[in-house]
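Re: your question from the hallway

Yes, I did run it. Sequences:
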Amino acid sequence: MNAVTLENVCKSFGQVHAVDNLSVEVPAGSIYGFLGPNGAGKTTTLRMIMNIIRPDSGRIEILGDGQIEKVKDRIGYMPEERGLYRKMTARKVLVYFGLIKGINEKEIIHRVPHWLETIGLADWADKKVEELSRGMHQKLQFAVTVINEPELVILDEPFSGLDPLNQELLKAIILEMRNQGRTVIFSTHVMHEAEKLCDFILLINKGKSILDGRLDEIRSRQSAHTVSVELEGDTGFVQSLPMVRAVKSEGKRLDVTLTEQDTQQFLRALMQHAKVRAFEVKVPSLHEIFVKLVGASDAQDS
Amino acid sequence: MHRILKVAQREYIETAKTKTFIIGLLMTPVIIGAIIFFTKAISGGEAGPRPPIRVAVTDLSKSLAEDIKTSFDDYNKRNPDRQFLLQRLDVQQDANSTEAQGKTKLRNGQLDAYVVLDEDILEGPGRIRFYTFKPKPANVDAFWTIENFFRKAVENRRYEIEKIDQKLLARLRNVPLERLEIGAAEGTEQVQSQGQRIAGMMVPFFFMYLIFMGMVGTGQHMLSSIIEEKNSRVIEVLLSALSPFQLMAGKILGLAGIGLTVMALWSAAAFAAASWQGLNVDVGPQLIVYFVIYYILGYLLFSAILTGIGSVCNTIKETQSLMMPVMLIFIIPMLGWFKLVQSPDGTLARVLSFVPPVTPMVMVLRLAAGSNVLFVEIAASMLVLVAAVIVVIWAAAKIFRTGILMYGKKPGLFEILRWLRQS
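Structure:
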């Protein structure tokens, strides 16, 4: 079952196609990363899912329903622009948003201290929001988002403005939520965050989807057939092997580009000639894929 | 509905905690009290010292100079620090040149006032001519006093000529009158003071003013609340949990509570002040019921307009230009209230009763003024008001839904009209 389905969704602001014929299926219980450079249409897409702005055309289904109003209580949404009532205390903010998200008063009494504890703001519970630091504000915003323990969590740039320690805390909570069977969609332009968390990614640029699918599949598909090896003795023979296209030497290590993807055959050939100390199939990082594909799509456009 | 109440509750509590609310709640009665107190103190108090005022008189009738001098002397004895210096400017050659001389002295600043009594002032159509040159506003009061000396002198001399006994005249003129207000039971008569009569006039105004403040005062809180949510970007979080209509309805409801609180407290304060002053203000239960109904309808209309205005603006300053035309409509009953109280069934009152934003104010004013408003009129005005409320809330909800998420440039009128046409 899909938590969110987008079919041929389009949205223009004046002459600009913010989202152009986008179709995505987010399976329930997964972490889905919406990646792309600034201005790619990530926030617009998330806002359309939340029905904050309406698509010009196309269909959006969320938690099995075409109308978000019916399922709002089962969703948590953290917008890109953070904002909370500045004059209210952290505790009251959490209680208020819990109540308007449909949690009953008995339940909220237990939930608020739990979340304050989880995000490390228990000591700041009765401080006004305007007295909190930026990082604390951000964590409180996250707690507000998930106070209703939603099935579907949508986070727009959740890691911006957090120090590495808090980023780890947030990642741990997100993974924990996935393990509980919840669905998490988040947008980011920081690739290594996505790399560690995502099951699926959608890469968009200028409103168009340029890559979509399981992260591990994407990585192997995008593999540049490169292997890094370390051998004992003379390494001159490697260049003459039939499956080798190019060799680049980096100290003791050799970066070998193969003509095809059969790394096993290459390993066998190496073992016949020399003792293999290290053998690593190089998987491209998301960062590399991002730069390569976004660069290519930009080049295509111009 | 549960959520609307939660929004309303927060709105109520957070507004009641703001400084603007508390100051407004306390300051308005304090300011009104202070104005009444000072007006009383100033008008009732003794006048302070002032430099002597120089007056010259040319008495062409040649028979009043002594009388006038006596009244001036009496006054000067009683008011040592507020002297009038009287000098005679008698005719030397001809009247015209003397008068010209007096006027020249006025222009030169040697005199503050110059008075000429016509020759036939006592028996003919002659008059007292009171000349001044660029009179100081501070002297206006003193001039009245001087004028009276001259008038009185002429009047008294006329009585003597006609042989009228002044004491007899005074006795004949004195007709005692007592204003009594009877209560429901026998023996509960009360002497009605002047204040009581004025209070009778003020009650309708008070009720109208209450409706005005209840609507406009809470309106300010509505605007600042919306602008704050917009500026702190909390709005998107809210809309992920609530529909725009729920948010708007909650705000309107919460601030209705604020308005009712303020009005209840002010009414209680006014009632307490009136009883303390011994003023008997009797307000029927019927009026209170109508008052509450009209307030609620009027408030709904006004606050819906404000949610629309607030949602398309980014700063309080921007809202002010849009508020101007709305506020101008309210000026009419505020300025014309005296006329409306005097003729509560007049054309103006009847017409204004059907102009929706001011309907509640005018109708409450008319009802409190004790006019015989037809029940048909009450029902019809309420229907018009309800229709206006429905139309405005419908339009405001559409504008609110789109406007609340817009930042940057304020949308133009045509763009707003386009939103209204969208489904």
